[in-house]
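Data availability (excerpt). The following record was deposited with the supplementary files.
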Amino acid sequence: MTRSDLVNQLAERFGQLTHRDTEFAVKTMLDAMADALARGHRIEIRGFGSFSINRRPPRMGRNPRSGEQVLIPEKLVPHFKPGKALREAVDQRPVDDEPAARPSSAPAE
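Predicted structure:
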């Protein structure tokens, strides 16, 4: 699902909101989440999951072209940990990789 898919789905579900209002609401929410993570805060959405910041310490890497060692600086990266309800919901749902009415390649008898 993309951001525009989310906006479209919310606009359809809540008819009293215009598409523009829905787009603004999604942008505001995502911006607030990004800002909170940038400030080092943890975000917890009950039943969905939590977002936090993980620290990757500095390490020595290697330039693949020259083979020379390079110091890779410390990084702070966002991390998502799904909640129990989300894990269980995903586990129960079938994957939509294959269409349900897929024609069989076996010859009919």
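Summary of structural features: Residues 1-40 form one domain.
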